[in-house]
Each structure stands twice: as C-alpha cells, then as structure tokens.
C-alpha cells in the first residue's frame, strides 16, 4: 500500500500496462442485440477521432481553397476523407486485435533510442495541432466576449480544469459531449451554406478530380491548386489520430478468446469510425462551399479567423440578399465564432488523450492527465504569445495575418510525423504474426500502400514551400538546402524505423514459435 501511495505522489512514474488503463475494457457492449443498439454501444471513439479532421487547422485551408479555386479542391477533401477512413479502420483493428495501441506496438519492435526519437517527433506534431487549438479558441473568446487576445490565450490554459471535471464523470459522457459539439459545428455550417443557395451542379462536378487539381497554375493570393491541395491534405490526415484510435478502440469490453467477439468489435468500430468521419467530411466540404458560395469572389483579403468573422457580418461582401439580411443581425458571425470555440474545445480533449497514449507507449512514462494537459498547453501558448507581442505595433490586418501564418506554419511538423505513423500502421496490420486471421486482405493492402506512398510523397514535396516561410525572401536558396537536408533526414529515419520494425517482427515471430 505504501509503495502504491508513493507512486501516486510522483508526477511522473514508469508504466508498461494496458493502453489508457483507466478506461481500457470498461464499457460493456451487448452481444446478441439488434444492429442499431449494438452500434450505439460502440459509438463514441469514432467521434473523438473525427474531431481531429475538423479542428481549427482545417478551417482556413478549406475556406481559402474555396475562395481561390471555387469547387476544384473539394475532390481533395473527398480523397483525404476516404484515405482517413482506411487508416482509421486499420488503427482501430490494430488496437482491438493486438490489445496494443500503435505506440506500444511500434515500441515493442524497436530500440529504446528510436522509441524516444519517435516520441519527440509525435509530441511536436501534437503541439503543432495544439497551437491551432489555442489560436482558434483564443480568437473565438475575443470575438464573442471582446476579451483581449493575450488574456484569451491565457484563459485557454484553464481548459485543464474542464478536462479534470470530464475525467471524473466517465469516458462515455466525454464521448457524448464530443458528439454534441460536433453536431453544433455541423448545424452552424449547414445553416450558413443553406442560406447561400450554392451551385450544387458545380459541387458535384468538383468531387471528380482532374489535371487542374494538383496544378501549379494559376496562383491566386499566393496559393496554387497544388499548395491548396497540400494544405487540405496536411490539415486533414493527422498522425495523432492513429495513435488515439488504436487506444480508445480498446475501451469496449471484449472476450479476446472468442474470434466472433473480436470480429464483431472490429465491424462495429469500423461503422462508428466511418459514420463520424463522414460527418467530418461534410463539415470540411461545407467549409469549402462556404468559401465559394457565401462570399463574393475575391472579396476576402484577410483569410484569418478575424477576417472571416468580419466578412460574415458585412452584408456588402456576401453573395446573396438573404445572407446579407441575416448578416446585419450579427447571427452569421456569432455562429461562426461559436463553432470555432466548440472545435477548439473538442480538440483539447483528444489532444490530451493522445499525448498520454504516446508517452506511455513510446517511453513507458506516465503523468497525471491534468499535468500532461497543462504542460502541453503551456508549451503551445508560448509561440502564440510571442507572435501576439511581436505584432503589437503592426496594422490590424498584419496582426491577423501573422497569427494566421503561425497556425498554418506550425502544421509543418505534421508533415514530418505522418510517415512515421502510417507506414508502421500498415506494416503491423499487414502482418499475420500480429493480426492473425484479421490481417489486411490484398485489397486493403493495395489501397493502403497506395495511400501511404501518396501521402508520404505529397508531404515531402510540400516541405520546401513550408520551410521557406521561416526564412526571408533573399534566403530562399538557403531555405531550399535546409528543406533538402530535412527530407534526407526524414527518409533516413524512416528507413531506420522500417528496418527495426521488420527485424523486431521477425524476433517476435521466432519467440512465439519457440514458445509453442
């Protein structure tokens, strides 16, 4: 008893147990009930995952993509969503079948040194998404309640107390809250787009990709179709969702000695995930449609959240009379800010859970959830505060652009981290040693490798343009050299990861055969 109490007193302690042990296998599910009752019991983890596909980082890329290129890039949202469904299916299946999350499965097959490097890389990706959440939530507080931006940034730190409260009421209620917030976001954008009376024929045609989708011409407001597409892909498929889903998919109580029970869990978890990701796809599509149909072409000079909020309250920039009349009441802009706040809070919950998953999985260290949240949020707040303080003497639009650029530029870490989650995920779920009869069939393997190679390639070719924004214009040659070196470093680290995973898998297979 004394040793257990002393362990609780420590802020950080060693752990090597089940993934998110406090919720693992705690939720009862019916065995012989009707389809919809069983689906309801399994519903929830998909909503927490879907949050990452509609966080504040997605908003700017989708809306400005619509503003600049009409419905051309909506096909990229569709392709990204289908790839996300495939990856999240594999992630949930890995957790249910192997009883390990993705971080644990990778660490079991790799060295301690590589585990630490991958942990740091994934932590940076989580912090990058957290910066977008800080900015989104702080701007929403500023717009709704006129709270000074610096103070609003500090207020976002206090969401740790909300998280503490949620952990006390149970994981099922957290899932329900997240679903409610998703529905709020969905309702806001359905309402705004419905009022705009968009060109549905143009939307349907936009879902079919063509040679212009990934073209480098034309360039509008510094964006080409290619950079717009890369921005949407980078903001949509995020590495931390794969770690999270492989963990929270284990929250349902399953008999792992019964193959039929495992198969049922995989099937209903896939239904849950696909339904929620379809909602995320609808939200992202509505954001792009909003960029096209709500505003007059080319009127949005400030693509930041501030600029979009102002535009939604300015009748002269809106596309039709009905929207203009509603805008006069302030309803459109207020609803936009409410949806932004809901999105930020949703991402707060999932980001903290993911941080706990990767810390425990990669380095076998655990800290209280409130401390974990406080540390991540404080680290994310620092660059936002620096950006706000540096732009005090600038014009209002320049301040808004700097803050918006910080949010977009922080996403560069996602490009680094994504290959180190999607390639191991595919290798693990393709392995009969790991998955047994639940390993990916040849169709899923083929689609998986196609998606993984395409995502890795697009992320790496997009790196040079992302790196250049960190340097002055006259340093562009130096920035290109840095980008090339980083790409070589990423490929070398990726090769190291693949080799260790391959040899680690063979060692586990040998041990399993000897034990038989």
What's this entry about, in short?
With 516 residues, this protein is mainly alpha-helical.
Q: Tell me the radius of gyration.
A: 23 Å
Portion in helices: over 70%
Biggest sheet, in brief?
2 strands, antiparallel
Total of helices: 25
Global geometry: globular
Q: Indicate the CATH architecture.
A: Up-down Bundle
Query: How are the strands ordered across the major sheet?
Result: 1-2
How far apart, in Å, are the first and last alpha carbons?
37 Å
What is the fold-level CATH name, i.e. the topology? Amino acid/polyamine transporter I
By CATH, the superfamily comes out as Amino acid/polyamine transporter I
Give the tally of β-strands: 2
The multimeric state of the shown protein is single chain
Number of domains: 1
Protein name: Divalent metal cation transporter MntH
InterPro entries: NRAMP_fam (IPR001046)
Function: H(+)-stimulated, divalent metal cation uptake system.
GO molecular function, one term: cadmium ion transmembrane transporter activity
